[in-house]
Write a structure and sequence with these properties.
Length: about 280
Amino acid sequence: MTDDLTVATYDVADGIAWLRFNRPTKKNCMNPALNRRMLELLDEIEYREDVGVLVLTGEGDSWSAGMDLKEYFRENEAKGLGAVRQAQREAYGWWRRLRWFHKPTIAMVNGWCFGGGYGPLYACDLAIAADEAQFALSEINWGILPGGGATKVVAELLPMRDAMYHALTGELIDGRKASEWRLVNESVPLAQLAERVTALANVLLSKNPVALKATKDAVRRVREMSYDNAEDYLVRMQEAANSFDNDGRKEGIHQFIDEKSYKPGLGAYDKDRAVG
């Protein structure tokens, strides 16, 4: 059990788990205690039957200003390589868990998102930012490269020229620019952020949960595959998904073909009904 249970918190309402960085006086910087607690909370939340979507956000005026320079870097480096590696395993471990989380995930970026914060940002399936949010790869400003996956994130999501500019200058960009560069899906005024994220979460809650998990995994996996390998993988993935929920697929086809109660291009079938 971690030494501080308050560094990250969550609550559940209407099918949505609201998971929060909770070090507002430290701009929600990630220290070892927070990283350990996040892993524990993901374990608690992942298979709860009353949770269909996870939203990751921050308390106060920040999402996360990255890694805690004092606790994560200086104090661990003073303890030696073993402590450094342990801290890295804890941080990268919960980001990896979040990438492959069983439910869809949304980053609700309400404020500062710097450096190491790009790890969990990328781990979330979708990301909505406040126009007023501030993003930066700040590592260059204190003399290191953007590590912890941050360089991979910008290389993956941004065009090369934008990725280079972002990494080499350390300059701030706001939520609107982050959306333009595709670090996030979109940005909205801060006053509308929670409402927009809730609406998006409700869209996801209306979908078949087995199909959601298969789809989010497929999008991440096929990016590194050739077309032929991806084609074969997706066939096998659909067959595997059918073994978990073949009735759901049949119900969707039944409602479309037999009942004509919905159109797949315009909305989802009623997943809460039994097979007709």
